[in-house]
Structures are given as structure tokens and as C-alpha cells.
Amino acid sequence: MRSLATAVRAAEVTAPTRPHRGTRSATGNLALGPAPAVVDRVRDLLREPSAG
User: Torsion over CA of 38, 20, 8 and 40, rounded to 10 degrees?
Assistant: First the structure.
């Protein structure tokens, strides 16, 4: 059960935060997922309202 929880957390960290066209297969998602995930997270940070 712990290994499943670890795998889910790793998938959440490396998964894009929004859907991307052109990645219809699991292999494509594994190969291309980390790069768009970084871009998505940076975009999310830039769009996040500043506190204060």
C-alpha cells in the first residue's frame, strides 16, 4: 500500500496540471509529460494572485 501511495505522489508531481493535445497514448504521456508539467507549474505560479 505504501508503494502505491509513493507511486501516486510521484505521478502527481510529474503530471501536467492541464490537458495537452497530441499525447493520446500512455507512452506519449510518459515521454512528454514531465516537460509540459514544468511549464504548467511555472504558468500556474505566474498566474497565482500574490499574497499581501
Answer: 30
Grid coordinates given for 37: 508539467
> What pTM value is reported for the model?
0.48
Structural domain containing residue 6: 2-47
Sign of the CA dihedral with 35 first, then 32, 17, and 4 last:
negative
- What digits encode the pLDDT tens for the residues 5-25? 998 888 787 777 776 666 677
What's the number of domains the chain is made of? Answer: 1
- 36 and 16 in contact (C-beta within 8 Å)? yes
